Structure formats: structure tokens, C-alpha cells
Amino acid sequence: MNITVLDAATLGGDLDLSVLEMNGRHELTVCDSTPADEVGARVRSADVVILNKIKLGEHNLPPVGEGNTKLICVTATGFDNIDLDACRRRGIGVCNVVGYSSDSVAQMTVAIVLNLVNHLDEYTAFVRSGEYSASGCANRLTPVFHELRGKTWGILGLGRIGKQTARIAEAFGCRVIACKRTPDEDYTCVDMETLFRESDILTVHVPLSNATRGIVNAELLSLMKRDAVLVNMARGAVTDEAAVARAVLDGRIGAFGADVYSVEPFGAEHPFTALLGLKNVCLTPHASWGAYEARERCILEIVENINAFERGEKRCRVDL
Fold first, then answer.
1. What is the pTM of this model?
2. 235 is catalytic
3. CA 16, 6, 207, 268: dihedral to nearest 10 degrees?
């Protein structure tokens, strides 16, 4: 089969993608990126399309009954960039990858929380600038930071990533509460209002769907403690980003972190542009999923998905 990777640059330049050739059984074409006006042609000519961020739908999939495309493999767990109904009409299978990045995302989630809680940016800037050396004082304890032990850490979305984050939070001595669609016997599950009202730290890990789009809204934000930390590690659009920005700028929440945005990268018109440079904000470039080990696992899972598809198996199929 002919396999085409449409946006390899989003996977980092340090992975060996030749494993996708599967010992020479398949012909592999690797494109670092694909301009919007070339996506359709590249998809049409490939038996298997591998992509990360590119959106596929009626506007760039081959017409029904045309093209070679049999399978689309998303190098991610989320697949909201793929129009599944359009793929079904064309008989194109769609696979995602599950569980490959749970440790990576949970690790980055906790890193962002610790950065905000411990004011690491401000402390390191104080030393880096030379102010510490010039101060004549052996230590500096402002801004004040607090221990996590005894704090309430709320988890919105208790899937693999949410549970791994919860386990780390428990190791810090936090009380963990969660909100999810079905109760979980291992954790105290509460409604949304209680989650936002009681959490000292609240991390978001829900997939993007019609049910979750904009779920973190101004009304829920207004319930949060004024010193609470909110961190979105899910999808940008699960939050009302304008409402989040207002809450930060108005001092209605203590700190905010995010690794995901409704537009990536976000431009000057995005609400978060107003947050750049604030000491109580930590924004990262959708990097949390991408520890080397996680990306390597992802590619190996893609290989397994393709092999399963060839055998007629339904591994990680999200179109069925």
C-alpha cells in the first residue's frame, strides 16, 4: 500500500518514520507539512493517510467512489479534526491511538500546576537577572507559595489522563474530587458546580464533543475560589476562552495554565494574547502529549492499526 504522512513536522524531527514501511511492504511518502490546497490530491493518491492536526472533510476528501484512500490514521487520541460522517460515506476507515500519551500529558499537567503554585518563573527570573546576587540576602520568600498537601484538586474528565493526574495529586497529599459522566468508585465524584466551587486546583481532561464544547463557561468560572488554579489540558474549545481571559484579567481566579487552544497557533486576535506576560499565567505550545517516548509509542501503535486493518480487524476504529 501507499502510505502518506501529511504533517510529519508536528511529530517532531527525531522519530524514525521508516518503521511505517513495515520492512519494505509499503511505499512511504513523508511530507513535513501539506498546504491546504494540496491536501485533497495527497489524500486521494494514498491508500493510507497519516495525519496529526490537518482537518479532513467534504471539502478535501475524494468524491464518493473515487480515489485510493482506504484508511485514515490520526496520530492522536482526539479525532475532532476528522469528519467521520464524510469518511463513512466514502467507506474510509478512521483509526486513532489510545493511551499512548497519558503519562506525558499528566506529567506536563502537574508541571504547569507546580510552576503556577510555586511561582517558579518569578523565582528563577530573580536569580537569572542578578537581583539575587545583588540583594545581599540569603533567600527570598515572595511571592508567597503554599504546600499542596490538604488542598482540593478537581479533575474534570476522569479518563486515562485524568486518572493518572489524580494519582499524582494524591501523592502530593491532595484531596481529589472529580466530575465525569459515570461515577467512579475510586474517586469522590461531584457535579460540575461543586467541582468548580470546591477545587483549589482544577485540571481539565475531557475530549471535545458537542456535549463538552464551551463547557467551562463564565457561570462556572464565577463559582471558583479567587485564588484557584485552572489548567486546561483537553482541547481549547472545551472552554469559553474569552470568559477564561476575563476571569484572569479581572482577578476572579488566581492562576491559569493551558497547553491547548481553539486555534493553534493562536493569533493576535485571540483572547489569550491579553494574558501573555502575566506572572500568574503559564501557556505552552500544545506540547504535553509529545514526550519522546509517547511519540514513539504513537507511531508503533499506528503500525499496529494499519496491520490490523489489512487483516480485516477493527482495531482503534472510531468510524464504526
1. 0.92
2. yes
3. 110
